[in-house]
Amino acid sequence: MSHPRQAADFALFSSLRYDTALLQSEANTLLSANTSQPSPLYMVRYHRDRLEAASRYFGWDEVTAKLTGAEGLRWLDVALIAKAQETESRKEGGPLKLRVQVDHVGEFSIESTSTSAVPLDRMFPTRLEFSQSLMTSSKTGGALLLGKDEELPQKSPNGSTSAPWPVYLDKVPTTPSPFTQFKTTSRAMYEDARTRVGIKSFKESAEVILWNAARQLMEGSLTSIFMFRNGRCVTPSAISGGQAGTTRRWLIEQGLCEEDTISLDSVQDGEDCYLSNGVKGVIWGRIVLQTGLTGE
């Protein structure tokens, strides 16, 4: 079976959090290389799984062999911990973003950068609640439309007092491909989407959501998205063309959300949503609609 661009012009990668606070998380321990020993690596097992799945799809046998099984997970765990400890010895400590990257011949590299503190309940939430102070929308089946005299809540439905990230919709559709299904360095579609909605830096606390020609939401440029539809929390189905994120996977397995298609046309201005990724956990977001979507 042949796969597109499997030779050498892109690499696979995954970004995850290193945080000693995770040593207190029983849920994280269950996803570590040794399930009886706490780990400061956020869901490391799922990050190994996503890299291995991508390597199998692209036919990168050397990478698959390196990552497969308990031995492969232990190898990745040791390499990530070593990089984090090396970084800690040169800095004052604190949580880190670790980016592990591998090319088609099995050459691995790991980069580390500082990242902001995140409470444990944002990494392993027990619920994803949506505001009930808003009126019901026939489009969403949820509590999402403002009444005449109502104001948007300034506190997350999950209790966070941090401001929600503005979440924009891309202005044009994206064609699903292996490079939206798997996490690779071929990321022009995500960078272009951020530019189109005016997000100038990857350090901005803002996100853009990609959608396909069938007008189904796919994913964010850096995150998975979760919305309230028909009385439940849903995340775009894999058939819509986005990635199977690590935190997203955990939330689905815990029964905190379900996969479903989400229509672009159902999205409402001011609607609460959640975002997630392997570095920041779960993030409160709020939809900001802009004009100029293709097809409007």
The spatial strand order of the largest sheet comes to 8-7-6-13-12-9-10-11
Helical amount: 25-40%
Largest sheet: 8 strands, mixed
Number of DSSP strands? Answer: 13
pLDDT averaged over residues? 89
Taking pLDDT < 50 over at least 5 consecutive residues as the criterion, the unreliable ranges are 133-138, 140-154
Report the radius of gyration as a whole number of Å: 19 Å
Structural class: alpha+beta
Number of helices: 8
Beta-strand residue fraction: 15-25%
What is the distance, rounded to the nearest whole angstrom, between the alpha carbons of the first and last residues?
40 Å
What is the N-to-C order of secondary-structure elements (H for helix, E for strand)?
EHHHHEEHEEEHHEEEEHEEE
Global outline: globular
Description:
With 296 residues, this protein is α+β, with helices and mostly antiparallel strands. It has helices spanning 26-29, 44-58, 61-67, 69-90, 120-123, 178-181, 188-197, 246-253; strands spanning 12-18, 96-102, 108-114, 135-136, 143-145, 165-169, 207-211, 217-220, 224-229, 232-236, 258-260, 272-277, 281-287. The strands form 3 sheets. Strands 8-7-6-13-12-9-10-11 form an 8-stranded mixed sheet. A 3-stranded antiparallel sheet has the order 1-2-3, with helices on one face. Strand 10 (232-236), helix 8 and strand 11 (258-260) form a beta-alpha-beta unit. Helix 2 (44-58) runs antiparallel to helix 3 (61-67). The model is unreliable at 133-138 and 140-154 (pLDDT under 50).
